[in-house]
Every structure is written in structure tokens, then in C-alpha cells.
Amino acid sequence: MTIKTTIELPEPLFVQAKRYAAERSMTLKALIEQGLRGAMARPPESAPFVLHDASFRGKGGYTPEFESARWEQVRDVAYEGRGA
């Protein structure tokens, strides 16, 4: 049994796919079937990377030498010697 359906493709992709199929003496339908089967046969992509929260929730805030410092001063010290 086959099902008839409609799909929407960007025109450049459609033209490229038609040309690709013609160069290989196959129909666009056969190319789409081959692509779908290939995509579904591949193992699933790994889960996206999630950066774990490494925030520090200590008491007292900044150390005494940085209590009244501007962010730029804190940043400069944090990146000192690292080429930034």
C-alpha cells in the first residue's frame, strides 16, 4: 500500500534534488524514499550538551578587596595572564 502526500521544499533544494535524481537515473520519489530510509536507519543524535549550574552560593559576597570594585576590575583580575 502506498500513501500519497504533499511536501513543501525550498525551490533551490527541489531543483537540486531533481537534478541529483536525474543524474542517477532515478525518480524524485525514489530519492526521497532513499533519503528517508537512510535518515531513519542512522542512530539518533546524542542529546544536546547541557551546561550544569556551577554557581557558587556562598555567604558574604565578594572578598574585602573587591567589595566596592566595579565589574571591569573583577573581570580584569579573573582573566589576568590569560591573554584577554
Q: Could you please describe the fold and organization of this structure?
A:
With 84 residues, the protein is mainly α. The chain has a domain at 11-41. It is 42% helix and 0% strand. The protein contains 3 helices and no strands. It is elongated.
Topology record:
Layout: H1 11-23, H2 28-41, H3 71-78
User: Helices and strands: which structural class?
Assistant: mainly alpha
Distance between the termini: 63 Å
What is the percent of helical residues?
40-55%
Number of strands: 0
- Integer-rounded radius of gyration: 28 Å
Proportion of residues in extended strands: under 5%
Instruction: Report the mean per-residue pLDDT as an integer.
Output: 90
Poorly predicted tracts of residues: none
| Biggest sheet architecture | none
Q: Total helix count? A: 3
Order of helices and strands: HHH
Query: What shape does the CA trace take?
Result: elongated
